[in-house]
Amino acid sequence: MAHTKAQKTVRGNRDSRSKRLGVKVFGGQFVNPGNVIIRQKGTKVNAGLGTMLSRDFTILALKKGKVKFFQKKGEAYVAVV
Question: What's phi and psi for 6, nearest 5 deg?
Answer without folding.
Answer: -120, 15
